[in-house]
Design a protein that fits this description.
Elements: H1 7-20, H2 32-46, H3 51-61, H4 69-86, H5 91-130, H6 135-161, H7 163-168, H8 170-195, E1 203-206, E2 209-212, H9 213-220, H10 224-237, H11 244-260
Antiparallel strand pairs: 1-2
């Protein structure tokens, strides 16, 4: 027979996970030490009268675990709800929930909490800053606060709904991830066309006819050079030993040389 977790202890587990999810990271079991540290107080209450069950539960927490920290709130609180309900008999079921969901929820969390906010709202703030409007900075700050509130609530949702939230909302969450990815791509595409300034003054003269290379490129695809430069930059960033700082210096060097020889304008 298991015991119920008090609200104070449940909040303690949540706060522990939110502040230490990546601190104990290692290359053998990834986030497992943080899982045990976070769930420890709650598991002690669940198995208050069964020391062997507590040892078994804590040992299962040291199994391989690695997910996006924010979505970890849902996974860990759901596993707590399962173990609280079934006691020692549900230890393996709770562990299986953590193991089976860490992969899918990692991709979901990255899309919803890292890619989408930074791409969309960061891009909006950057564009407003270029225009001299400081409102974008405030917008990013507000979004940051909203995201933290969502992260807190994810723990409560996972605990209250248990497995039901995960199974019933899976298709909706997948659709939301797809929509977020599409929105991010649209924003990035629009920013490339409007903010990456790259053109060439090169022209060819045949008799009395003068053909500007830039006019030809515009007929093929408007903003072809900015798109090509962005694509090459992303490709270069994926190469080994290439960092964002290094690529910035390379772009500056190329820009100086190209401007001196009047290749690009």
């Amino acid at each position: 027979m298991s015991n119920k977790i008090t609200r104070k202890t449940l909040n303690k587990s949540r706060n522990r996970w939110m502040t230490t999810a990546q601190i104990c990271f290692n290359y053998e079991t990834m986030q497992s030490a943080s899982v045990v540290y976070a769930l420890g107080p709650s598991l002690e209450e669940i198995h208050r009268n069964d020391d062997e069950a507590l040892k078994e539960s804590l040992k299962s927490g040291f199994r391989f675990f690695n997910t996006q920290p924010w979505m970890g709130n849902v996974i860990l609180s759901s596993s707590l709800a399962i173990e609280e309900e079934g006691g020692r008999a549900s230890i393996e079921a709770a562990s299986a929930i953590r193991t089976s969901l860490m992969g899918p929820f990692a991709g979901l969390g990255d899309s919803l909490f890292f890619v989408l906010p930074k791409t969309v709202f960061g891009a909006i703030a950057a564009y407003m800053a270029i225009e001299g409007n400081p409102v974008g900075v405030g917008l990013c700050a507000i979004i940051g606060v909203v995201m933290v509130v969502i992260r807190y609530n994810l723990w409560n949702i996972g605990y209250k709904q248990g497995v039901k939230f995960i199974t019933s909302s899976q298709s909706k969450l997948t659709s939301l991830t797809d929509a977020a990815s599409v929105m991010g791509l649209i924003v990035v595409g629009a920013l490339i066309a409007s903010n990456v300034k790259l053109s060439t003054p090169i022209s060819f003269t045949v008799g009395e006819s003068v053909t500007a290379v830039q006019d030809v490129l515009n007929k093929i695809l408007p903003n072809l050079l900015p798109v090509a430069a962005t694509a090459i930059t992303y490709w270069a960033l994926g190469k080994k030993k290439m960092t964002s700082a290094r690529i910035v210096w390379i772009i500056i060097a190329i820009s100086i040389v190209a401007a001196y020889f009047k290749i690009f304008g």
